[in-house]
Amino acid sequence: MSHSIRKVAHPALMIISILLIASNLRAPITGLGPILEFISHDLHLSPTQAGMLTTLPLLAFALFSPISSGLARKIGLESSLMIALTVISLGIIIRSSGSIATLFLGTCIIGIGIAIGNVLLPSLLKRDFPTQVPTLTAIYVLVMGIGSTISSSTAIPLLNLAEKLHITAIPSWAFSLASVIIFPVVSILMWLPQLSTHTRPSVDTADIDSHSYLWRSAAAWQVTIFLGLNSFIMYIFISWLPSILVDNGYTENQAGYIHGILQLSTAMPALILIPLMAKIKDKRTMSVIIAILSFSSILGLLLMPEHAIVWVICIGFSCGGGFILGLSFVGIRTHDAHQAAALSGMAQCMGYLLAASGPLIFGSLHEMTASWSLPLLMTTSVCVVWALLALYAGRPQIIIRTQTGNDIIIDNTHPRHQS
């Protein structure tokens, strides 16, 4: 494969298409949280079963992320991303059928489609816009936040609309879930012109599987768990925040809007932190502050729920900031693009497996105690571990390996050379 920069015929159209695809990478999941109580009541789901609805996509992310680059190598990036959008659409249709079986099956299928998009979109940016990756990444994260905000904020109004229109073919909550199909449908229409080309992913993505030594690296695991704990906390609140708010006296509409604010606040750090990345060499202090902010905000939500909107903004900001910092650690701790892509793949696979346990554990604790106190205190304890891990994950050292012949015999770190 040539390493020359590929000339994009219509760069503005390509950027719009990329951002539309990005809008699909969270919205189909986040629209579930505000109406989870309605679904649980209608289908008689336990809190643990309800938590599984958020856990399933995360498991799909973990299991299907490693094979996404192989799919792109075989059929091309453009076709692979079209498959991702089609799978998301199919999952939304199945999930909205109204039964327990289709609810869980569709949710899992949506996760598979999102997993493919998660892995391949960054490669598309590197391939077609190599000099604009930081800027486009910031916009990309922002669009993901906007898409998830729209999905969360409109979930309850759409449910109410279905009841006013007396839609009986499917439950009102299913109508609300079905409405997010607008995201992949518009994206598919915009992406169709790209199918005329058949190109492979960037060499960074294509070589993800060639760095198996990272799985024996303590430094790689530090970065992986840092990102995993960040997602662990984030997906707990994506799943359970509306239920917490309703039990503290908020209406379903208010809970839905605040849930939308959570999504939007996760995108805010993209506009604030990315310009600071090049100026602040050692990211550890910033990372610890982010974890402390999350700790204090969750504690605030527990002790002073009347100020939930403040705490939710801070939780969203800390999780969004932790995600960006975690991605920066991938660059800081690696010596070339191939190793960075490999570490990113490892972190995404194992990090999402860790994150998948969050909503399930949180829901189980709530079910056992009939209270939100113990689950929230558990989450604050995770923030403490997250802060301590930041001191190791964010060190300005790179992961190296020593080889004898073709055999890898050591995997260690050394300080990055200062420029």
TrEMBL record:
Keywords in alphabetical order: Membrane, Transmembrane, Transmembrane helix
GO function term, MF aspect, one: transmembrane transporter activity
The transmembrane segments are 12-29, 49-68, 75-94, 100-121, 133-150, 170-192, 213-237, 257-278, 285-303, 309-330, 342-362, 374-393
Pfam assignment, any one: MFS_1
UniProt cross-references to InterPro entries, sorted A to Z: MFS, MFS_Cyanate_Porter, MFS_trans_sf
Cross-referenced SUPFAM superfamilies: MFS general substrate transporter (SSF103473)
This chain's protein is named Inner membrane transport protein YeaN
State the organism of origin. Answer: Photobacterium piscicola
- The gene name reads yeaN
